[in-house]
Specification:
The complex is a heterodimer of chains A (381) and B (357).
Chain A: E1 2-6, H1 11-22, E2 27-32, E3 47-50, H2 56-63, E4 68-71, H3 77-82, H4 84-94, E5 98-102, H5 129-147, E6 151-157, E7 159-161, H6 166-177, E8 181-183, E9 189-190, E10 192-194, H7 195-207, E11 214-218, E12 224-225, H8 226-236, E13 245-247, H9 257-263, E14 280-283, E15 290-293, E16 311-312, H10 313-318, H11 328-333, H12 342-355, E17 375-376
Parallel strand pairs in A: 1-2, 1-4, 2-3, 4-5, 5-6, 6-11, 7-10, 8-13
Antiparallel strand pairs in A: 9-12, 14-15, 15-16
Helix pairs in contact in A: 1-7, 2-4
Chain B: E1 2-7, H1 11-26, E2 30-36, H2 40-47, E3 54-56, E4 69-72, H3 76-88, E5 92-96, H4 103-116, E6 120-123, H5 130-141, E7 147-155, H6 175-191, E8 196-201, E9 210-217, E10 221-228, E11 236-241, E12 244-249, E13 255-260, E14 266-270, H7 290-307, H8 318-330, E15 332-334, H9 342-353
Parallel strand pairs in B: 1-2, 1-4, 2-3, 4-5, 5-6, 7-10, 8-15
Antiparallel strand pairs in B: 7-11, 8-9, 9-10, 11-12, 12-13, 13-14
Helix pairs in contact in B: 1-7, 3-4, 5-6, 6-8
């Protein structure tokens, strides 16, 4: 079986390409937008094609002989929405049997209501453009399927973490700058999924039968909090997790009346009518909301405090999530069961941090030294 | 005026050489006579900078144009043949790094330069930075105490605008040959020749995207070079002495940082010009930035061509880093990739041993 991976150079695409190739699960064709994007995959000798996700003609050529195509293209709203029709239409013309679309659990919002599952109503007018684009992309795909022949399987992973994940890299970067923050001591639920658990689900979506037009929420087996995710990363650097800036609601909205109107309907801001902030303001440059220290109080006489967290709306909401999304449907119809425990996943992630050049001051408690000597490839004869 | 030909009109020429050569034309130091590249689009992009330049497809066409110096920026596997041919046709050569993909070719290039008495220079830009020259002085002066160890980390998600997949062909090497040639050249220049080398990378029948070179220098100074094309590394070279430390942010041409372990403050220093004939601290003048250093390395070569002055980087010195790279490729180990499963590791070993699987 030949599997085309479009967006093969991204975080998920790279690991999927690597796994399918190295486990011989299928013949892999990496499809990327430019030659430059082949760099990360160039350590593997793989079949590749250059095709832009908006270019049906190039995509058609790229999809020839592929039985399954996995859509892993990431990007802004325009890219998320704009690549759906060209990809589906090219897949149809190329005779692809199944298109697997990497959507996101964010279609349910960053703070999904209790009881949310795959059948819940999707609101295309949420606060974050990413959520709306994914909602519309899913709807468009299902609409195209009604007229087309290519099967559709939609996967909605939660917070995908692991080596090279932006969630990990962003937190480490903030931590090292002194800008990391938590909300409510990191007690919010993190609907995490380790990258290899997601790859496992994608492999099932490639091979399982009778799953056309199905949507699957995907996450790890354990229910974890943001503190569970971030504490080991913090300890890796020898930092005290308790010293990370912790922000407690309520928040004070200073800009973006329209946004405020919409936020008011959420649980987060229900508390806003009660007293104002301590020393944080929320500002709204376009749709990316951020919290900053109160600039009015800045003075050249003030000795700067350590850290100055800037908080985006996405994390502001995610960190207050209090609902663990279900993965029962994936278990039932996709035979999905996470293959990596959260502890194992964190060990691998932390080991990757060492690979990525982050110097550990102190190994976190869950860390077990997995280092083995290098494997000699060529003997010096 | 010196007549120059630019051989290879890809990204490095468009982004770096064209503006530097343009500057030299404006200063009447040279004239770009011709540009050579098999790709017509690339040639056209370069001619935008040099409207009078002739667009040429074959190297042989240069022979009768009275060219003084050829600047070679073509893919590394072409460097040797092009350089040797040009030298024997009486044309001086400035060759972008790496001088060659292997030491045999590099030696042949150097021999050709000696035989023809023509200048052969290499584009190891970083040696032209005031920062790297200052680091050499500091390390030699024992300011940090006894040097103990070092760490050179350099890695980005690859964004270089390549125009074909051949850039990633094995013959042109991976990140070690591309970036490591700079790092190893600097380390040898700073610390001398390494006494022990251990190398590992992540190539699985392709080229290395990540690699690590562990090196031991004289006086038990040990450290590692970590390079990547898919991971944002710290992009710092750090030296640890018995009294203090020194950090160079990669490609900072005119800045370094230095500190002492028993002190709460450290220097983040801009490097200024010093001149025996003046009191430098009264009227400090900045040293070359990255772009100016690029121009300066070409001026260094032009001076060698015109006035027979010594090159800042004697060409023989370019051979050392290539020899180490060659040793690394011959003695490679598989780097530990902690996210891979056992079955993936097993298959990697099978694939490497039997590429046809």
């Amino acid at each position: 079986m030949k599997v085309g991976i479009i967006g093969a150079n991204g975080f998920i695409g790279t690991r999927l390409t690597e796994q399918l190739y190295l486990t011989r699960f299928a013949e892999v064709r990496a499809i990327v937008r430019s030659y430059t994007a082949l760099a990360g995959l160039s350590r593997l000798k793989i079949d590749y094609r250059i095709a832009d996700g908006f270019d049906s003609k190039a995509l058609l050529e790229a999809f020839v002989d592929c039985e399954v195509v996995v859509h892993c293209i990431a990007g802004n709203s325009e890219t998320i929405l704009g690549t759906i029709e060209p990809v589906y239409s090219a897949a149809q013309k190329a005779g692809v049997q199944r298109l697997i679309y990497l959507s996101s659990a964010m279609v349910h919002g960053q703070m999904p209501a209790p009881g949310t599952n795959e059948e819940s109503h999707l609101d295309p007018r949420q606060m974050l453009p990413f959520n709306n684009a994914k909602v519309r992309a899913e709807k468009l795909l299902l609409k195209l399927r009604k007229k087309g022949r290519v099967e559709i399987v939609i996967l909605r992973p939660g917070i995908v973490f692991g080596p090279r994940s932006t969630w990990i890299i962003k937190f480490i970067s903030d931590l090292l700058k002194g800008d990391a923050f938590l909300i409510n001591d990191g007690k919010g639920i993190c609907n995490s999924i380790y990258i290899d658990n997601l790859i496992h689900a994608i492999k099932l979506a490639i091979s399982e039968e009778d799953i056309d037009q199905n949507t699957f929420l995907l996450k790890d087996a354990e229910q974890i909090t943001w503190a569970d995710l971030y504490r080991p990363l913090t300890e890796y650097f020898g930092y005290d997790f308790q010293r990370i800036t912790n922000i407690q609601p309520p928040f004070y909205i200073t800009e973006g009346k329209d946004l405020l109107y919409r936020i008011k309907n959420t649980k987060l801001i229900k508390s806003v009518s009660s007293p104002v902030p301590k020393n944080y303001l929320i500002s709204n440059p376009d749709a990316s909301l951020s919290i900053e220290h109160d600039k009015k109080k800045s003075s050249q006489w003030r000795i700067p405090a350590e850290g100055n967290p800037t908080i985006d709306l996405e994390r502001l909401l995610l960190y207050q999530c209090d609902y663990a999304l279900p993965w029962k449907k994936a278990y039932k119809y996709l035979n999905y069961e996470p293959v990596f425990s959260f502890i194992d996943a964190m060990q691998r992630t932390i080991a990757w941090m060492e690979f990525a050049g982050y110097e550990s001051k102190k190994k976190p408690k869950l860390f077990q030294n997995t280092h083995t000597p290098g494997i000699r490839i060529v003997n010096d004869e | 005026m010196i007549k120059a030909a630019l051989i290879g009109c890809g990204a490095v020429s468009q982004l770096y050489y064209a503006p530097a050569l343009h500057e030299l034309e404006n200063s009447n130091l040279l004239k770009v006579d011709s540009v050579i590249d098999p790709d017509p689009d690339n040639r056209l992009r370069l001619v935008e900078h040099f409207p009078d330049a002739e667009m040429i497809t074959e190297l042989e066409a240069l022979v009768n144009r009275n060219i003084d110096i050829a600047i070679i920026t073509s893919p590394p596997d072409l460097h040797a043949a092009q350089t040797i041919s040009l030298l024997y046709n009486g044309i001086n050569v400035f060759c972008e790094k790496p001088l060659s993909t292997n030491s045999a070719d590099a030696s042949a290039m150097i021999r050709a330069s000696v035989d023809t008495k023509k200048v052969l220079a290499v584009g190891l830009l970083r040696r032209h930075f005031s920062s790297t020259q200052t680091i050499r002085k500091i390390l030699q002066s024992n300011i940090l105490g006894d040097l103990k160890s070092f760490s050179c980390q350099e890695g980005h998600i690859f964004r270089w605008p390549v125009s074909s997949a051949s850039y990633f062909d094995k013959i042109n090497g991976g990140v070690l040959l591309d970036i490591g040639v700079h790092t190893l050249d600097l380390l040898i220049w700073w610390l001398g020749h390494p006494e022990d080398i251990y190398y590992e990378d992540d190539a699985v029948n392709g080229i290395e995207v990540n690699c690590r070179v562990k090196l031991m220098f004289k006086n038990n100074i040990e450290g590692e070079v970590r390079l990547s094309r898919d991971t944002e590394l710290q992009n710092k070279y750090t030296f640890y002495g018995s009294k203090g430390w020194l950090v160079w942010d990669v490609n900072e041409a005119d800045n370094i940082q230095m500190g002492f372990y028993d002190f709460n403050y450290h220097l983040s220093a801009a490097i200024m010009n010093s001149n025996e004939n003046s009191i430098p601290y009264l009227q400090p003048t900045p040293t070359n930035n990255f772009q100016q250093s690029f121009t300066a390395q070409l001026i260094d070569v032009l001076s060698a061509v015109k006035n027979r002055t010594k090159l800042l980087i004697p060409i023989g010195e370019a051979l050392s880093s290539i020899k180490i790279i060659e040793y690394c490729y011959k003695n490679r180990n598989l780097i530990k990739m902690p996210w891979l499963t056992d079955s993936e590791y097993f298959n990697i070993l099978r694939i490497i041993k039997e590429p046809s699987i």
